[in-house]
Amino acid sequence: MYVEKQRRGKKVYFYLVKSLRKGEKVGKEKVFLGSGLSKQDIKEKMESAKGKLDLVFGIVNKKEEKEIETLKDQLNKIISTIPKENFYEHFITEFTYDSNAIEGSTLTLEETRSVIFEGMSPKKPLKQVKEALNHKESFDAMENHSGKMDLKFICKLQGLVVKEVLPDYLQIFEGKLRGVNVRVGNHIAPGFDKVPGLLKKLLLWYRKNNNELNPLVAAAHFHCAFEEIHPFVDGNGRAGRLLLNFMLKKKGYPYLNIPFKERAAYYKALDEFHKTQHCKSLVLLFKKIYVSTLNNYKHSL
Description:
The protein has eleven helices and five strands; from the N terminus they run βββααααααββααααα. The protein is mainly α. The longest helix is centred in the last third of the chain and has 21 residues, at 280-300.
């Protein structure tokens, strides 16, 4: 890291800069320290600024990044040996079951498969059956989207996730950012008037940094921040996990399914980010899931 000075007119602005290497390219990330600072002022502000940079750019070291890349390559290789239709049915069944179960659905894995691939309806609440069908449709929309990740795409996914399952008084927010304040457990989400600005800022952050960071770190940070903003009245978790996979897919990474059994660890990681703005725990959970997925595939083939 180093301090960079920029002169604009009669004023001098100071930034703490960290150089970043990604492949053959070198980029940099900056944190503004202030203007007209003395050497002592700069020294006092550097520790705080260094901490801000390390919250994202210090998440994984070179060894950990290599391990993640190796996992990616191994998983992609073994997935390539599975017929596409078989893998699709297997993954979307588990992903739909787990993502909806995290949100409270009582459909079993087999019931989920029967609903989305056989059109059978078990003796479970109709809302849960519809949510399973919605999730598959949302996944297909994510899978077939060739454009960028923008607000229009995000709202489209959420609209599909909650299609025809919102209470009557909330249906006006289907596919739209929330216009009411919400509380999620102990977390009071930002006021609805702040949501558009926060989401725009997050999307700008992703576009700026996703080529500089390890893809798993960029996706984890985005996911944590997205869930913290909680931009919709419902469907934030399911839409967020679909977006997570869209980001990974764009970078050539295998799809990632957060199992229902890891719900507590997943929520703990999101809570840690809320308290510290640090996504290390979620990155480690993602890595653990990749390892477990790889082992399962090895033993099932």
